[in-house]
TrEMBL record:
Belongs to the FMN-dependent alpha-hydroxy acid dehydrogenase family. This is (S)-mandelate dehydrogenase. The active site is at residue 274. FMN binds at residues 79-81, 108, 129, 156, 250, 272, 305-309, 328-329. It comes from Ralstonia edaphi. The gene is mdlB.
Length: 377
């Protein structure tokens, strides 16, 4: 039977049909009036390519170098919490699809599998994303990630407080899930999702469980999922001293902050507005990417996320100075629609679209992309 999936939007629609509304809204929603989501997409759509003709593009090379290491594909699976709400063992499925594609997978602090369990059940390049909820808990997570042999640590800095997500508030979305009559009816009308959740188990947050903690303040902070709003540049410097492997800082949106990261010896910055989920009025990462690349591009790895829906977007980001791109929602659409196979299919779709775009703009190597391949606005 011929596939019914020809683009990311097909996976999105399938995910919407499969998931209860409260879960789909959690994935799809943004902060405030959600104008940030639209702006992220509009920023990509405002960019156009400037092609070079009569160049040899019979073979296209998508490889790049990130923090001194070669990558065959300039993609990374972004840290995403509560993937188990899409499919039980969603984190495992994402990690295994990433390993087959030869790209890193970043496990979220808010994952539905413990970082140790993931390391046992999935191979490949594993990174761990750190939310600093409380200093004591952050130190424990960092030590666990090192003991479990995670390749890199990704510190997320843009969640000093939780964003105002109206969809989640309206739906009463929480972990653990507490169903009111309206939500229960929604769940019952999605029997395939409900059956998988009953068999596989509803999502929990094993990395932030408090059993065994003697510090009541830590327990309270974890149960309420309060972030440490006092985490500062001095704390980042201390983290850099204590973590011996690659360290990336996520949530950077200015050249000055990127420069401060470089000065502290951070291996890479992740240019991100959290997918429009924290504040609607941030710039789109693709807009500020050129200034950040100009400031630190030759000395510090640059990753970018937020709003990527096709391989053309990835090529635009590479031409704007990024070394690699983190994918989030697009992979969750594939996960919800078709499980691990859907994630692999979405990654293959991105690869094919990138190769096709390189051929059509007359650039055989992703590493050779620069601003000359983009039309001036």
């Amino acid at each position: 039977m011929k596939s019914a999936f020809f683009g990311i939007e097909d996976y999105r629609r399938a995910a919407q049909r499969y998931l209860p509304r409260m879960v789909f809204d959690y994935i799809e929603g943004g902060a405030d009036d959600e104008s940030g989501l639209k702006h992220n997409r509009a920023a990509f759509e405002s960019l156009r390519f400037s092609p070079s003709r009569l160049t040899d593009v019979r073979t296209r090379d998508l490889s790049t170098t990130l923090a001194g290491q070669r990558m065959e594909l300039p993609l990374i699976v972004a840290p995403m919490g509560l993937t188990g709400a899409c499919r039980p063992d969603g984190d495992i499925m994402l990690a295994r699809a990433a390993a087959r594609a030869g790209i890193p997978f970043v496990l979220s602090t808010a994952s539905n599998v413990s970082l140790e369990d993931l390391a046992r059940r999935a191979s490949g390049r594993l990174w761990f994303q750190l939310y600093v909820v409380h200093p004591e808990h952050a130190r424990a997570l960092t030590a666990r990630a090192l003991a479990a042999d995670y390749e890199a640590l990704v510190l997320t800095t843009d969640v000093t407080v939780n964003g105002h997500r109206i969809r989640d508030l309206r739906n009463g979305f929480s972990v653990p899930m507490r169903l009111n009559p309206r939500m229960a009816l929604d769940v019952l009308t999605h029997p395939a999702w409900l059956t998988r959740q009953v068999v596989g188990g509803f999502p929990t947050l094993p990395n932030v469980q408090t059993e065994g903690s003697a510090n009541l303040e830590v327990q309270a902070a974890l149960l309420q999922r309060r972030m440490d709003a006092g985490f500062s540049w001095d704390d980042l410097a201390a983290l850099r001293e204590s973590w011996p492997r690659k360290l990336f800082v996520k949530g950077i949106l200015s050249a000055s902050d990127a420069a401060r990261c470089r000065a502290l010896g951070i291996d890479g910055v992740i240019v991100s507005n959290h997918g429009g989920r924290q504040l609607a009025d941030f710039p789109a990462p693709i807009e500020v990417l050129p200034s950040i690349a100009k400031e630190v591009g030759s000395t510090t790895a640059i990753i970018v996320d937020s709003g990527f829906r096709n391989g053309r977007d990835v090529v635009k980001a590479l031409a704007s100075g990024a070394n690699a791109v983190m994918l989030g929602r697009a992979l969750l659409y594939g996960l919800a629609a078709r499980g691990e196979a859907g994630v692999a299919e979405v990654l293959a779709m991105f690869r094919a679209d990138m190769e096709r775009t390189l051929a059509l703009i007359g650039c055989a190597r992703a590493a050779a992309l620069d601003r000359t391949h983009l039309a001036q606005r």
